[in-house]
Amino acid sequence: MENNENKHTPELNESNSARRMRLLGETPSEDIHLKSDSEVKGKLWDNIWYRHKWAIIFGSIALVMFIILGFTLCGDEPQDMNIMYVGPEYVLHKVEDMTGDLTLICDDYDQNGEIKINFATLIHQSPEQREEFAKNSPDKLITQEANRESLGQFELQTMSGELVIYLIDPYLYDLRLKGSGACVPVNEILGYEISPDLLYDSGAVKFSKTDFAIYFDNFDVLPADTLMCVVKTVNTDDELLENSKDFFKSIIEFEIQ
After folding, report:
1. Helix 16-23 crosses helix 28-73 at what angle (to 10 degrees)?
2. Rounded to an integer, what distance in angstroms lies between the CA atom of residue 191 and that of residue 184?
3. Model confidence over 58-69: pLDDT tens digits?
4. Coil, strand or helix: which one is 109?
5. Which of the residues 26, 76, 155, 206 could staple to 21 if both were Cys, CB 3.0 to 4.6 A apart?
């Protein structure tokens, strides 16, 4: 009778591995529980990466670009004015000359006795422009990845409100700004109506048709259809906006003597 009872005790029925764990003071249930948690966590992160990996990748790229551009625009030296060219052409080699021309009509807005203008550039090419470059000027064609990243950088920059005046390609203007309400109406900036020949639409002017662009030939490097506009977002500083509108007006009202 006693032997039959012993046959049914846990010690006699357990496996060798379970007996070893019991003797070592380990708890099988706890080990299984911990292993299960680890597997669940692993699958959770795997699923997040599988479902959202492109959003994570492009979000990370956009964040890095935004930080880099922020450091570029917010350097140690104060700037009286910020302006950006966004279009299909590489114009960096003429930035210093164009900046010098713009300085001639820019006020000392920060009143520190020195006029400084930050002229930023960003290359973005429309599908049609890319086809044209591929056929006739392959050296001007940027990669698809760079083109995609520049569009994201432009969108981040307009949202930041740190930059107000844009010299911009019509394709990108129509794609992102036209009808968005982001551009301050030209007639509102000037306080009067201008010639329809100079106006692209209510929010932008044809920069190459201004006397300023005609007189200073350094701007010939910009495509002839480049537009100029003032972009306002909820993050735009009021003083920066007013100064930018004043500078925009100075460009429009420049006259060849």
Report:
1. 80
2. 12
3. 555 545 454 445
4. coil
5. 26
